[in-house]
Design goal:
about 325 residues, Dna Ligase, domain 1, 2 domains, 7-stranded antiparallel sheet, alpha+beta, globular, D-amino Acid Aminotransferase, Chain A, domain 1
Length: about 325
C-alpha cells in the first residue's frame, strides 16, 4: 500500500508523519475495535439507513427496495410520483452500480449524463444489481431506491458534475480526520480518489481546506473547474461531525468512516458508513492518523455524549 504515500518519499518520513499503514490498521485498529458481527450494519446500505432513521440521523429518504427478481416488474409502481431518484446496490462499493436518474417522465429515465434509458434498460440494470454484479464478493444483492441529493451551491465550482462528499474518520466516537472528495472529469463524476477525484484535507476545528491532492500529489486548483481549492470551507461543520460521532453509538464500531453530503434543502446527510475506510485521507491531509489515534487513547474523556465529543474536538483538535 506504500505507493499511496510517495508524497512522503521515504520510510523515515512516513514514520515521522505518523502514517498508519494497512497492516497496522487491519490488525491493531480494525481488528481490535470492530467486531466482525457488526460489519453487516454498515456493509448493507438498507440496514444502515434503517438504523440511521431510528436515531434521527439525516439520510436521503428511501423510496423503495427490490430484493427479488420478480419484484423488478414493479419498478414503475415503486417510482411513481417521483421525477428523480437514485438506484444503488445495497452492498456496493466505490460508486459501482449507482444509477442516478435526474428526470423520469412517461417511462423515460434521464441519467445525470443526459442519457435517456427505457424501462428495459433500467430493468436490466436492477437485475444486474440483484445478481451481485456490483456487490462485495459478488453475492446476491438488493436494489435500494432513494431520493436524489441536490448538492449545495456552495460547492458548485469545486466539483465536476458529481456530488462532492465529506469523509470523516471516527475513532472511539471522536472524529479524528476529515477530507472532502471532489469529482473530476477523469473520475466520471464519482468521488473516489483512486478513480481520479480530488481529495481536500479539512481542518477539524473549522471545516476549512488545509491541503489538496490529486493522484496523491499536491495541487492548488481543481483540474477541471479551476477553483482555488484552498478557499473551500464546509458549512454546517459541526453537523457534519455530529453525524460521524453518532454513527459510533449507532453501530458500535470503534473505527469507521462516515460519508456525508450537504444537500441544499435538507443540510448534511449521511450517505453511507464504512468499517474499513481507506487510508488515502492521510495523503489529503498531509499527515498520518497515528498521532490522532494516540491522542484519543491518552487524552480524550470517556463516557461523553456524541455532542460532547464533537465539542471537545472543535475546541481541542490540532
Amino acid at each position: 500500500m506504500w505507493e499511496y504515500f510517495k508524497i512522503f518519499s521515504t520510510p523515515e518520513k512516513l514514520r515521522a508523519a505518523g502514517v498508519l499503514g494497512m497492516n497496522a490498521r487491519n490488525y491493531y485498529i480494525i481488528g481490535k475495535h470492530n467486531k466482525r458481527s457488526l460489519y453487516p450494519l454498515v456493509d448493507d446500505k438498507v440496514k444502515t439507513k434503517t438504523l440511521a432513521d431510528s436515531i434521527d440521523i439525516n439520510t436521503p429518504h428511501k423510496i423503495g427496495v427490490i430484493e427479488h427478481q420478480y419484484e423488478v416488474e414493479n419498478l414503475l409502481n415503486i417510482v411513481a410520483g417521483h421525477s428523480e431518484f437514485v438506484i444503488k446496490p445495497a452492498h456496493g462499493s466505490q460508486g459501482k452500480g449507482v444509477l442516478v436518474i435526474k428526470h423520469f417522465e412517461n417511462n423515460v429515465f434521464t441519467t445525470a449524463s443526459n442519457k435517456q434509458l427505457g424501462f428495459n434498460e433500467v430493468y436490466q440494470h436492477v437485475s444486474n444489481i440483484l445478481s451481485g454484479l456490483y456487490s462485495l464478493g459478488g453475492q446476491y444483492d438488493t436494489a435500494l431506491i432513494e431520493e436524489l441529493v441536490h448538492f449545495s451551491d456552495v460547492f458548485q465550482n469545486f466539483s465536476y458534475q458529481g456530488i462532492p462528499d465529506v469523509r470523516v474518520i471516527v475513532y472511539k466516537g471522536y472524529p479524528i480526520m476529515a477530507m472532502m472528495r471532489l469529482a473530476t472529469k477523469e473520475s466520471d463524476g464519482r468521488a473516489n480518489l483512486h478513480q481520479g477525484a480530488v481529495g481536500v484535507g479539512l481542518d477539524l476545528r473549522t471545516g476549512c481546506a488545509n491541503n489538496a491532492v490529486s493522484h496523491n500529489m499536491p495541487i492548488a486548483v481543481h483540474p477541471d473547474t479551476g477553483a482555488d481549492l484552498m478557499t473551500l470551507k464546509v458549512p454546517m461543520w459541526k453537523e457534519h461531525l455530529m453525524i460521524g460521532a453518532q454513527a459510533y453509538e449507532m453501530t458500535g464500531l470503534g473505527y469507521l468512516g462516515a460519508d456525508i453530503v450537504l444537500d441544499k434543502f435538507r443540510g448534511p446527510m449521511m450517505l453511507e458508513l464504512n468499517a474499513r475506510p481507506g487510508l488515502a485521507i492521510q495523503i489529503a491531509n498531509g499527515k498520518g492518523l497515528k498521532e490522532a489515534i494516540k491522542n484519543v487513547d491518552k487524552h480524550c474523556p470517556k463516557n461523553l455524549s456524541a455532542e460532547q465529543r464533537v465539542d471537545y474536538v472543535l475546541n481541542n483538535a490540532k
